[in-house]
C-alpha cells in the first residue's frame, strides 16, 4: 500500500513537564473544518473488551476548544545544507568532487549540487548509467555528461565533474578505489555546454538537489566533497579527495570534524560550513579505514564519511498549534491531548511528573520513554485484514506504520537501501505511542507492546488505590539519582530495555543507596543508547556484536556518534542486567505467554511473605498479553553474570511454546551455553528477590507479558496478589 499522511496527528516539543511547566503541541490536520482538543489522563490504554478497557479521565486544560485545521508537511531524506555560499558566485569554470560508497545505485541521486533562483544549476550525481555532471543554463537547457557505466553497490569510488567555461566542455568521471575487481565500471563522459554559466546564488546541498523542495537524495556514504575553481586534473582531484590543499579549492568539507553534532566544517578558504538536515549517520568508516582502530574518536580521519538515506528524519519542524500550561497541583501521571474532527480521533501522550525533590507519593513508576522512542513507528509487516478488523471492532487506533511510513520508521526497521536505522527522533508523529495501539493480532490477548502495554500497570495501581508519581527515562537522564532518591520504591513496566549510561547509573545508584526496585518486565536494561544536547530529541543505537538484533552494524561502526561510546549490549559493556536486578535476558519466542511454577525459594523465610495468599503451584496461566504471565521475552538469574549470592528464586516459568529459543549471547556452541546449563533449561523466567547491603531490596519477574495478567478476574488473582504484597512492603504502606 502506498504510504499516506494521517488526517489528524501531531507531536510535542518535550516528553514530560512538572506542574507550572509548559508543553507545545504541533498538529497537522488535513480537514477543512476545525478540530476539537481537550486533555485526558490516561489510566488504561488497552481496548480489549475482555479487559478493563480504555480508561480516560477528562481534565480541565487551558487549550480546550476548537482549533483551526492546517496540514503540516513531512520531508524525508537527509543532506548537508550550506546556506551561505555567496563565495561561489564568482565561479565560471569548476570541479565538483567527492568520494562515495553508493548503497542503492540507480535513479537520479545528487552528490553535490547548487541551484539559483533563475534555475541555473550545477550538480554532480549518479544515475542508472553511472556518474553524471549536470549544468543547467538560465534558458533552462539541461546539459548532462554521463560516464555510461553503472556504479556498483557498496564499493568506494572517487567521482568528479568539471566544466571549462572557455571551451564549454562538461565532463563526468568515476574511478573505483580498492579493492579492485575484474569489472569495467570506470571512465569519463563528455558533453558540450557552450555559453552556460554556473549558478549565481543559492544554497549548496550535499546528498540532495534543490528544486522547490529537497529531492533526489543520495543513498550511501559521501566523504570529503569539494568544489574547486577551475578544472582539476585527476592528480589534483585525488589530492583534494585526500583532504590536501590543491590551491584552487573554493570549499572542502571535512566530515571527520564534529562527528557528535549537526555542524559540518568547511576547511577551504571560504569557510562555507553547513548543517545536517534529517540526521544521516556519522562516525562511519571512510574509504581510508585501515582497521587499526575501531573507535572513531581514536582515528577520526578514518571516519570521515556520512551515510545518507532518502528516508532519514529528525525534526518535522512543525509550527506550534497550542500550548498546555500545567497548573500547580496537577497530579502526576500519563496524560494526552485528545483531538477530534469528524469521525477521526487522536491522542498525543505526555507525562506530568512531580517537581524535583517534591514527591507526592512513595512510589515512582518508570515510564520507559527511551524504549518507547527506540521502537517508535515500528513497521512490523504483520498487519492484515484480521488485524484491522479487530482494531475496528475494539475501537483501537486505526493507524499502523506498515501503511504510514511518511513519519519515518523504527530502529527495528531498515532504510530503503537495506541499512539498519540507528537514530530515532521523538520530534515527529509516533503512531505506536498511543493508547489503543495494537502491535499484534494476539489470538490469546490484546497484542499490546510498550506504551499501551505499560498502562496495564497504571490501571492496576489506580484500581488498587496506590498513589504514585511517574518519572521518565528522559527525566532520569537529565537529573540523575537525585530524582529517584526521595522515593521508597521504583517500579518498572513491561519492557525497560534501552538505557543511556546516565539512566543506568542513576537506577543503579538508587538501588545501591537503599532504594527498592520492582522490575516487572523482561529483556530489561539490555541495549545501550546514546543522546546529546547538540542533537535534540534523538536517541542512537548501534547494534554491534551479539544479542537479539533487528540488524547488525558493520564492523568498525560499533561506536555511537552521539557520545563516542561503545554501543551494543550493556552486557558487552560489562554491565549485565543481573548486576542491577538479579535477572537478565535468556530466551525469546513468539508473543505467547505461559506460567510460573512455585520454586523452593518461595518457602524461604526471607521471601515467603511474597507468596502470602497464593495457594496455587501454577501461577499466572492467564492474561491479556499472550494469554500468560510468563512469555515472549524471558530473564533468568545467573550468578556468573552478577546475580547476587543472596538472590532467591521464588518461582520459575514453565510450559513455554516451541517458538521460544535461547538468545544468541548465551550460546557458545551447539552443545554448550554460557552458564553450562542445557539450551532447554535457559528458556525460563526467574521470579527473583534479594536484599541489598544499604537496606533496600529488588524484586524481578523476568517476563514481558507479566503486567498483562494483573487485571485478570477483576484484579483478584495470584499475580495481582504477589505484586500487592511486594509493593505494600517496599513502599512502607503496610
Residue ranges: pLDDT <50 for 5 or more in a row?
none
Number of helices: 10
Portion in helices:
10-25%
Taking the alpha carbons of the first and last residues, their distance comes to: 56 Å
In total, how many beta strands?
43
The percentage of residues in β strands lies in 25-35%
Global morphology: globular
Ordered list of secondary-structure elements with their pairings:
Layout lengths: L7 E5 L3 E2 L4 E8 L5 E10 L10 E5 L5 E3 L11 E4 L11 E9 L6 E7 L5 E7 L2 E7 L5 E5 L10 E8 L4 E8 L10 E6 L11 E3 L2 E3 L1 E3 L4 E10 L4 H8 L7 E6 L8 E4 L7 E4 L3 E4 L20 E4 L13 E4 L7 E9 L2 E9 L10 E5 L1 H6 L10 H10 L28 E3 L24 H15 L3 E5 H7 L1 H4 L4 E3 L6 E2 L1 H12 L3 E4 L7 E2 L9 E3 L27 E2 L8 H4 L1 E16 L19 E2 L10 E8 L10 E7 L6 E2 L23 E6 L5 E4 L11 H4 L2 H14 L3
Parallel strand pairs: 2-27, 28-30, 28-31, 31-33, 32-34, 33-43
Antiparallel strand pairs: 1-3, 3-25, 4-5, 4-6, 4-26, 7-16, 7-22, 8-13, 8-19, 9-10, 9-16, 10-11, 11-12, 13-14, 14-15, 17-18, 19-20, 19-24, 20-21, 21-22, 23-24, 26-27, 29-35, 34-36, 37-38, 37-39, 37-40, 37-41, 40-42, 42-43
Helix pairs in contact: 5-7
